[in-house]
Amino acid sequence: MYWKTGKEKKVQCILCPHRCHMEPDQVGICGVRKNIRGKLLTLNYGKLSSIALDPIEKKPIHFFQPGTQTLSIGSFGCNFFCEFCQNYSISKCIPETFSMTPEDVVNKATAFNVPSISYTYNEPTVFYEMVTETARLAKQKGLKNILVTNGYIEEEPRQEWERLMDAVNVDLKGFSKERYPGNFGGHLEKVKESILAYQKAMHLELTILVVPGINDWDGEIQEAIRWIAKIDPKIPIHLNRYYPTEHYREPATNLNDIRKLYNFAKEHLNNVRCGNF
Ligand code: SF4
C-alpha cells in the first residue's frame, strides 16, 4: 500500500513524509520496506517482536479506558533515528520474531478478554499493513484500537487510522523545526499536522521525553506546552524522564528540571503527568 512505480523498476514509498525513492534491492530509511523486482514489499508483515498484556496507563494513556489492560503488539523498524532511543534493539536492528496474523492477534485479545489492542513498542507507521488489517478486524469485534506513534505519516494513510483508531499517544520529541530533522530524522510540521488531525478524530495524549542536550534548552518544551494549550488545555501530557542508552550517554534528566517543567505545564494545561521514575 502507498507506493508508486517509476522507470527501470524504481519505486517510491509514499507512506511517510520521507517519501523514499528505491532502486531494486534497496530498502527505505525505516529499513523494513524494500524494492523487490520493482514492487515495494514490507519485510515485517506478520512478524512480531513482542506481544504482552499491559496496563493501558503504561502506553501511556491515562484518560481512555483507565484501569484496563490492553493487548500490546510491536514489530521492528522505525522511520526516525533518535540516538537516545530506548527501544534500539527493535527500532534499528532486526530482532527475533514470531509470526502472527491479524486474526491471531484479535483472537488473542478476545481470549484474554481485554477491551483494546495497542500498536506500540516500535513505530506502527512502518508496520502499517499489519496494524491496519488488525485494527479493522478488531473494530468489527467491538475492540478499541490504540496507537503509540511518533506521528510521522502522510495524510492519506493517516486518514485510514483516523477512522480505525480510538486513542493515540503521540511522542512529540521536541519543538524546534531547525533541530527536529537532525535530532530525530523528520520534520516537526508533519508531526504537528498529525497531532491536529488525531485530536479531531480520537482521544489524544502526548508524551515529551525530556532529553538533556536534545530538547531541554532555549525554552523549547515550554513552547511546545504553549502550543498544546492553544489547541486544547485538556489534552493530557506526559513529561517523561530520559535514561542513558547505549548510543546516548548524557546523565538521566535532572529531577529538578522535570519539576520546573511540570510547574510550568500546570499553569497552561489541566492534565500533566511526569513518568519514567
Ligand atoms: S515508510 Fe519507510 S520506506 Fe516508506 S517513506 Fe517512510 S521511511 Fe521511506
Could you explain the architecture of this structure?
With 277 residues, the protein is α/β, with parallel strands linked by helices. Helices cover 30% and strands 23% of the residues. The longest helix has 14 residues. The chain is globular, with a radius of gyration of 18 Å. The protein starts with a strand and ends with a strand. The mean pLDDT is 97. The site of iron/sulfur cluster has 12 residues, from loops.
How many strands? 15
CATH class of the largest domain: Alpha Beta
Secondary-structure-based class equals alpha/beta
Beta-strand portion reads: 15-25%
Low-confidence stretches: none
Q: Span between N and C termini?
A: 40 Å
What is the H-and-E element order? Answer: EEEEEEEEHEHEHEHEHHEHEHE
Order of strands in the sheet with most strands:
7-8-10-11-12-13-14-15
What bound compounds does this protein have? iron/sulfur cluster
CATH superfamily of the largest domain: Aldolase class I
Number of helical elements: 8
Average pLDDT, all residues: 97
Number of domains: 2
- The helix content, as a percent range, equals 25-40%
The CATH topology assignment of the largest domain is: TIM Barrel
- Strand count, sense and closure of the main sheet? 8 strands, mixed
Which descriptor suits the 3D outline? globular
Report Rg.
Answer: 18 Å
Query: Which architecture name of the largest domain does CATH use?
Result: Alpha-Beta Barrel
Descriptive tags:
single chain; 277 residues; alpha/beta; TIM Barrel; 2 domains; 8-stranded mixed sheet; 3-stranded antiparallel sheet; 8 helices; 30% helix; globular; binds iron/sulfur cluster
